[in-house]
Amino acid sequence: MSAFRAQPLQPLNSGQLNSRGTNITPIKTVRRPTENLPAEGAKQHKKKKEKLSALCKTPPSIVRTRNGRDYRRGNFLGEGGFARCFQMKDASGQIYAAKTVAKASIKNEKTKTKLLSEIKIHKSLKHPNIVNFVDCFEDDVNVYILLEICPNQSLMELLKARKRVSEPEVRFFMVQIVGAVKYLHSRRVIHRDLKLGNIFFDPDMNLKLGDFGLASVLPSTDSRKYTICGTPNYIAPEVLGGKHTGHSFEVDIWAIGIMMYALLVGKPPFQAKDVEVIYERIKKTEYYFPEDKPISPSAKTLIQDLLSLNPLNRPTIDEILNYEWFKGPFPDKTHEISLSETPVSLEQISRAQSSINFTNTKTNAGIYTPRNKDPVEILRSDLQSEQPRAMLPTSLSPNDTRNKYQEVDPSQMGRPRRVNFSANFSTAIKRLNQVCFETYQNMRRLEYAGKEQSQTQEAVDCENPTLISKWVDYSNKYGFSYQLNNDDIGVLFNDDNTLLKLHNSDRFLELLYHENEGWACVENSTSHPPTQAKRQLEIVDFFAKYMNSNLSKVSENEDRKEIVFLRRYTRTSDYIMFEMTNGNFQFNFKDHHKICISKSGMVITHISPNRSTRTLPLAAVLRQGNFPQEQVPSCLEKITVIKEAIKRKAFKEAN
Ligand SMILES: Nc1ncnc2c1ncn2[C@@H]1O[C@H](COP(=O)(O)OP(=O)(O)OP(=O)(O)O)[C@@H](O)[C@H]1O
């Protein structure tokens, strides 16, 4: 069979992402009907002809992408209301799941917008408990979303096979689910279709949340959505209020409550044959705990709170794991036997062991627990065990650096009020590259001028720039933290946002990236931080404590002359390069000498290993071949390395 030529999808424009907000889409009574257990209830909605996935034909045996990559189609994996999923193997033998959507099923604008939104949101996510998005392409008949393969099916199949699941197992599941949802909410993403059938097992039996077909990014934490959507058994009461009430992150908390109940009791709490009856029960939170399926009182308490009618009475995602129920027996992992039967002796796991397992599971799910342990201890042991400085890749891939990128307008940064920037991501990258270009051009000009003039000129000292005096690369977990020589402390978080805590002030600045609005800088007080920022502030304090007690400064303190953020960093085997929002470039070399290029390439600063700092016109240093008095080893070579590194950034593609 001839291979189809697949092409990359058209890029989304930002307006498409939230367009669903004003449309009322019908409640999805046909999605994964088996979620509405038991079977009689499901049959009512099982109208085969309505399933768009039925339009999806088996893909060709070889799918070839435009950039010449071949994927060999393998077995059929499963089917939802919208897509069919097949195994795909690449040339190296790596197997993926290809969620395949027939183009015939995306004829109308709404379906197209939904698919593009799913792709855009899913692509932006990276978390150990979220199905990894690998690639996306299309051929004449299908759109393929290439995903990490989850060969052990979903929680729905597990429940079907097991009928009920034990409390220790559900505790473990809950932590992984909470980790994934916490990550989504921190990025202002609401999943809106959390259900057992959308939570898969990877080869190691870790849970992976998938299907972002109904996910939505909220423009701000206090905005609301009005589209009625979801899967009947999991819909929160405020969603049924539709246009009038609106809904937000709490719908996911509700769905977590439904899943917890379903796993422990064996069926969802509002289960009925008729969907209308389900909705009536949901609106009145009419459910009960069957006596013949006993569950612990602390489990009931958590379920009751999660299923609070008033969304504001539900625990936040950060509060769920503080419930008493999580103090019960906690396994070290999910074992494969769980797919078919209850593992023995889970109830016998000791308190001490359970506590260790709970903490480890939280850590693996990206959940930071400062109250459980001294943060400095956690960080120290993590850094020691992972040896990140030695073990991190010698250079960051373009993607890595791109993700670390932040863009602001430096002239606006000092204003003590909310400022919005309207730059999209690629414009922002271009702007950053423009700064590199100007600096590179000036350095090159000075270099030529220096070669032509033989006499030496007097070196006049200039003002020292703002420098990074300490840093911790913890981007494998939280982000990159740094302390400036004005004592401000910042963290460039892995979710692309930055928080800068100003020293000798109770103010802090958040640099947030938003899909539609571009970059925004928000100033707040540490005494009344917005809820979303609380956690990040804790992490900044966590780093601050670590850096203060473990790292020595590379330069002496300076008063704050301006507000400066780190906007991008690059690590190689020879140096780490910092690009700051004021256009400065700092290079920390392996031999502990640091050089900063500022004023668009006109000024150079040397910080010696013993912290003595000198700032001179670059022209003077180039003409003399080095700094006077305190000589920099291989000074001109270092300047060339810097110039070349800045040049590479200047000519880098914006996307
Ligand atoms: N990463 C994966 N690994 C293995 N199988 C998968 C994966 N993702 C999806 N599947 C299989 O494909 C089926 C359909 O996927 P998915 O639920 O994402 O599609 P959908 O049509 O959007 O579903 P829904 O009807 O819930 O909207 C799943 O039920 C599952 O059997």
From TrEMBL:
It comes from the Eukaryota. GO terms for biological process: exit from mitosis; filamentous growth; G2/M transition of mitotic cell cycle; homologous chromosome orientation in meiotic metaphase I; intracellular signal transduction; meiotic centromere clustering; meiotic centromeric cohesion protection in anaphase I; meiotic spindle assembly. It is an enzyme of class 2 (transferase). InterPro entries: Kinase-like_dom_sf (IPR011009), POLO_box_1 (IPR033701), POLO_box_2 (IPR033695), POLO_box_dom (IPR000959), POLO_box_dom_sf (IPR036947), Prot_kinase_dom (IPR000719), Protein_kinase_ATP_BS (IPR017441), Ser/Thr_kinase_AS (IPR008271). Its EC number is 2.7.11.21. Residues 10-26 have a biased composition (Polar residues). This is Serine/threonine-protein kinase. Gene3D superfamilies: Phosphorylase Kinase, domain 1, POLO box domain, Transferase(Phosphotransferase) domain 1. Residues 467-549, 565-651 form the POLO box domain. Residues 1-51, 390-413 are annotated as: Disordered. Keywords: ATP-binding, Kinase, Nucleotide-binding, Repeat, Serine/threonine-protein kinase, Transferase. Belongs to the protein kinase superfamily. Ser/Thr protein kinase family. CDC5/Polo subfamily. SMART domains: S_TKc. It holds the Pfam family POLO_box. GO terms for molecular function: ATP binding; centromeric DNA binding; phosphoprotein binding; protein serine/threonine kinase activity. Residues 71-326 form the Protein kinase domain. ATP binds at residue 103.
